[in-house]
Amino acid sequence: MGFFKSLSGRFLLLTILFVMLAEILIFVPSVARFRMTELQERLELAQLASLSVLATPDDMVAPELADELLDNAGVINIVLRRNEVRELIISKPMPAPVDETFDLRDASPMQLITDALRCLFAPDDRVIRIIGQPIKGAGLEIETVLYERPVKEAMRDYGLNILWLSALISIITAALLFFSVRGLLVRPITKVVDNMMSYRDDPADARRIIEPSSQIRELHEAEQALQDLQVALSQSLRQKARLAALGGAVARVSHDLRNILTTSQLLADRLEVSSDPVVARTAPKLLGALQRAVTLCESTLTFGKAEEPAPTFQKVVLRDIADEVLENDALRKTGDLVDFDRKVSPAITLVTDRDHLFRILTNLVRNARQAIEASKVAGTVTIRAEQIGEEIHIRVEDSGPGLPPRARDHLFRAFEGGARQGGTGLGLAISWELAHALGGTLELEATSQDGTCFLLVLPRKR
User: Shortest CA distance to 89 belongs to which of 97, 80, 101?
Assistant: First the structure.
């Protein structure tokens, strides 16, 4: 049974079935035509027997000869109509009443097929009447009565021969198609699959990249596309390996540099109490630069070893999370420049990871608050949400000065998309990754001098 689960096996089975179906569709009209020919031959033999009788003096023959003529024709009686007069030419005693009459002169193809099928499944002892047109113009009509059983047996023998022949043709045709398709399609496809499995085991080995060789255009195009994909993937893996090595080196350098900078920061703290006016003015700037350098080193180390846990999905109330985010961030604000607002219906619920969603909103709200504080102009940070179909659209808006061009160009890219001086852009990069882990998206919907809006779209259900 495993063979028929393969492409070759299923093709072989379908070929046999379709050829057999075609033969069966041919079989029924063939059997109907065979029955028509058999009955027509009986009429012709009956006409010859009637002509033999009419050739005798007084149209009379001995009873023994009459029986022989009827047995030779395979009929019970013969009626010939000439000059509008029906005449019983020769007959035997009727064994039983006539069960059905068939007129072969004006029967349609569908009628012949129907009569043939009825004949195959009718009782064996039926007596039928056949009406036809005499050949060579020897009368207007010829009619005969006969037993249907010999005709049925001849039809069955013919049908069995046709079925055996159809089965043989099906097997031969299926075998030829099977070996042809196996050579033209299955083997090239198997070669591609084998190459994919070999490449999977060691993508770094360039010798395992497929070389297009098929002469079939579609398969050649598939091999070419697979080759391009494997080449691109191998290059990407090599680049990632180099970046990983570089990241390890950067992490080690950042670790040592952080220690050096921390020591320098401690020493620089003493400069603040210097009595030299120049040193006193320079010390805060030096301390700020050192603090930014330490922060950058710590951020690099944190991002390099960050391993996000797999999301744990549960039903949460969005308004509760929004309230917690705003309350926590309100504790971190400096001064009274920033107000917080929440426009989230308590009826909005979704199935998601609570911690991931909390971190996303916290990063977005913190960035919005810091933008307003940096502008030194009072503003508002707002979380609003709405349900659209099977999605929850969450917007974090602020009335700050908008994102600078550099931040827009490198948005969601670590160490490149910082919106404020000294920022690393890690918050947005991590938020983007968390949003995709939850099956959603995070994008910048709008930014201008009147404010910025980030749109977080999450599925309502998992």
Answer: 80
Same domain for 350 and 235: no
CB 261 within 8 A of CB 290: yes
| CB-CB neighbours of 245 under 10 Å | 10
Output the pLDDT for position 316.
Answer: 94
HSE toward the beta carbon, residue 41, CA cutoff 13 A: 11
Same domain, 224 and 320: no
- pLDDT of 110 above 80: yes
Residue pLDDT, tens place only, 181-198 = 777 777 777 888 888 888
326 within 8 A of 384, measured Cβ to Cβ = no
Q: How many CB atoms lie within 10 A of CB 372?
A: 22
Tell me the angle at which helices 187-201 and 217-269 cross, rounded to the nearest 10 degrees.
10
pLDDT at 272: 62
Q: What is the model's pTM?
A: 0.45
Q: How many other CB atoms are found less than 10 A from the CB of residue 134? A: 19
Residue 144 carries which side chain, given as an amino acid letter?
Answer: T
Q: Does one domain contain both 236 and 335?
A: no
Residue pair 373/334 in contact (Cβ under 8 Å)? The answer is yes
Q: Which pLDDT belongs to residue 3? A: 63
Among 283, 304, 325, give the residue marking a domain's end: 304
Q: Is 74 helix (H, G, I), strand (E, B) or coil?
A: coil
pLDDT digits 0-9 by tens, 290-312: 666 666 665 565 555 555 567 88
Q: Are 57 and 81 spatial neighbours (Cβ–Cβ below 8 Å)?
A: no
- The residue written with tokens 């035509």 in the block is 33
361 and 261 in a single domain? The answer is no
Between CA 231 and CA 229 the distance in angstroms is 6
Do strands 379-388 and 338-343 pair parallel, antiparallel, or not at all (unpaired)? parallel
Q: Give the residue among 319, 350, 329, 306 at the shortest CA–CA distance from 438.
A: 350
**Among all chains, which residue has been given the structure tokens 């940070």?**
381
pLDDT-derived band at 255 (thresholds 50, 70, 90) equals: low
Residue 257 structure tokens? 């540099």
Contact 352, 313 (CB under 8 A): yes
What contacts 418, CB < 8 A, 6 or more positions away?
Answer: 407, 424, 425
One-letter amino acid for residue 289 of the chain:
A
